[in-house]
Give the backbone structure.
Amino acid sequence: MKWMTLALTVLLLLASASLMAKSKVYAWKDENGNVVFSDTPKPGAEMIEVEEQQTIISSVDTSILDITPRAKVEEFKVSISQPEDHATIRDNSGSIYISGQVSPVFKRGLSVQLIFNGEKHGEPQTRSVFILRNVDRGEHKIKLELLDNQGKIIASSKERTIYLHRARVN
């Protein structure tokens, strides 16, 4: 008798589990002729039984993952936006305006050094615009270097050649 009761209980549990695994969905057409699905019945709706399948995901071995935090290394770029390469600048006062661009963002602690004709020109500064005065006429090479807060070069632009044209009085 105990076995019979136990078998009946197991059968009832299996039957109730299979009933719980089915969901009721109702379908009908709206005013525009579109099919609408809902879990709430509506007059004239057709009941559709949907069997739900349980999704079992096996465990993942996370011991192979490297979750140690790493310092993000930003790669900076510096470029000369003005003057163009091989540009001829006509200025009798000998003034040259150099404009650079730093990407991704010019951050605190960074500075820009102008290299003019192969030598450092002035001190590094926190902006990328340089104005040179009384420069001799002729060919000149310009380059920008981006420095970190310890003065280490972290990026440099391509060298550009420019020409300064000044009128000469005999």
